[in-house]
Amino acid sequence: MEYQDILYTKVDGVATITINRPQRYNAFRAQTCEEMIHAFKDADFDRSIGVVVLTGAGDKAFCTGGDQSTHEGGYGGRGAIGLPIEEVQSVIRDIAKPVIARVNGYAIGGGNVLVTLCDLAIASETAQFGQVGPKVGSVDPGFGTALLARVVGEKKAREIWYLCRRYTAQEALAMGLVNAVVPPERLDEEVRRWCDEILEKSPTAIALAKKSFNVDTEMIRGMGALAMQALRLYYETPESAEGVRAFQEKRKPDFRKYVK
Ligand SMILES: CC(C)(COP(=O)(O)OP(=O)(O)OC[C@H]1O[C@@H](n2cnc3c(N)ncnc32)[C@H](O)[C@@H]1OP(=O)(O)O)[C@@H](O)C(=O)NCCC(=O)NCCSC(=O)c1cc(O)c2ccccc2c1O
């Protein structure tokens, strides 16, 4: 597969997938998801690879979720919402190798979900985290909500989704969303150090550990699949459209008339 939206490199046992859409703050569209799925599978099948790093191009954003400029009641590609994001989420969990999020900037919306899903996360001091779904007419009521609650606790996860605030890297560390925070100039070195420590370990033991960690939260995948069908219907409503339009028009959304 020829990649347009991602960069994919392999160096000394580490595969790095970089979402390469800095002009869109590394938001993903359908094409980006297809390429990420392909690259993760390649890394899984490649016996020279022991760890996968997921990151974003540039220093502004790790990933800001779905590309709102391609969102018109759906994202126009494959799957229930026109974006096979549930397959990206699944492949991160399913590959037998640890995935480390190298969080170099904004991890917002679906980008924050990716951080939640990665086995480990190392953030630059400049990174910012948060959810925006209820502000922009969307929600990820699967791994986005339920797995987040497992990672940061119920109260914090509800705060993150209901208030849509932004959190600093230090706050993300305190809530357990990331494993380490370093100055931006030390990010690559720190990520490599963590990768090298993993690469020294038994790959079979690591794979068994990863798969065993997944078991406890596996039912969330089913919840997410159901949610995608519901989201398809939600995206067709004026309420969801108001959120997308407000983001595109750089104004506050007006959802009050949709209170049930
Ligand atoms: C990321 C921000 C907090 C940055 O704010 P800031 O004020 O610093 O900068 P701007 O807002 O001016 O943004 C700069 C520039 O980037 C463009 N941009 C940023 N994010 C996106 C995006 N996601 N899509 C398209 N473009 C984006 C922005 O338009 C500006 O471009 P200009 O040309 O105007 O300069 C802030 O930008 C922000 O809050 N972004 C919103 C992010 C967003 O709405 N994301 C989508 C949420 S929905 C989602 O991600 C999602 C993901 C999933 O995985 C799901 C899975 C299952 C179900 C649902 C899912 C889902 O809904």
TrEMBL record:
GO biological process annotation, one example: menaquinone biosynthetic process
Site (Important for catalysis) found at Y75, Y235
Annotated substrate binding lies at T64, G65, G66, D67, Q68, Y75, Y106, A107, I108, G109, G110, S138, Y235, K250
Query: Which UniProt keyword terms apply here?
Result: Lyase, Menaquinone biosynthesis
From the UniProt record, list the reaction(s) this protein catalyses: 2-succinylbenzoyl-CoA + H(+) = 1,4-dihydroxy-2-naphthoyl-CoA + H2O
Q: Transmembrane stretches, by residue range? A: none
Q: Name one GO cellular component term.
A: cytosol
Specify one Pfam family.
Answer: ECH_1
Q: Which GO terms describe its molecular function?
A: 1,4-dihydroxy-2-naphthoyl-CoA synthase activity
Q: Which InterPro entries did the record assign?
A: ClpP/crotonase-like_dom_sf, DHNA-CoA_synthase_MenB, Enoyl-CoA_hyd/isom_CS, Enoyl-CoA_hydra/iso, Enoyl-CoA_hydra_C, Keto-benzo_CoA_Hydrolase
EC number(s) stated in the UniProt entry for this protein: 4.1.3.36
Q: In which pathway does it act?
A: Quinol/quinone metabolism; menaquinone biosynthesis; Quinol/quinone metabolism; 1,4-dihydroxy-2-naphthoate biosynthesis; 1,4-dihydroxy-2-naphthoate from chorismate: step 6/7
UniProt keyword Transferase, yes or no: no
Family membership, please give it: Belongs to the enoyl-CoA hydratase/isomerase family. MenB subfamily.
The UniProt function text for this chain reads: Converts o-succinylbenzoyl-CoA (OSB-CoA) to 1,4-dihydroxy-2-naphthoyl-CoA (DHNA-CoA).
The molecule here is called 1,4-dihydroxy-2-naphthoyl-CoA synthase
Gene this protein is translated from: menB
